[in-house]
Amino acid sequence: MEKQNQVKIFEDKKVRSLWDAEQEKWYISIVDVIEVLTGTDRPRKYWNDLKLKLKKEGSELSEKIGQLKMLSADGKFYKTDVADTEQLFRLIQSIPSPKAEPFKLWLAQIAAERLDEMQDPELTIDRALEQYLQLGNEYYPL
After folding, report:
1. Per-domain residue ranges for the chain?
2. Cα–Cα 20 to 30 A to 27, which of 20, 86, 106, 120?
3. What is the largest CA-CA distance in the chain?
4. What is the pLDDT of residues 90-103, one digit of tens each?
């Protein structure tokens, strides 16, 4: 199963993502999304509270969330709660934020870019270089 870790940028915030070639899906770090949408400095706490709230409301969304190893700020890989784009769209509806609509558009753009890259693999290299220059070498050391 080929998986490719990447860091995407939304409004100067890093959002860890992983492309699963076998499933042809993006998986995105939920705590990163929560941090972007809420601006909280405790996104894990917010996520834990939201999971409890969703369970109380009878939502099965939090039960369908998986974990994948993603690169952390300390340079190590840790299991992180992730959601595919469909789950993420449903999750975003539960988070009151003025950034929700722009974030949904950003997710749709990521999906469209992946389709373009599948048609023209050279675009993958161009986007990787662009991200490297944007992030510096923190996540993509040479």
Report:
1. 3-135
2. 120
3. 47
4. 888 889 988 888 88
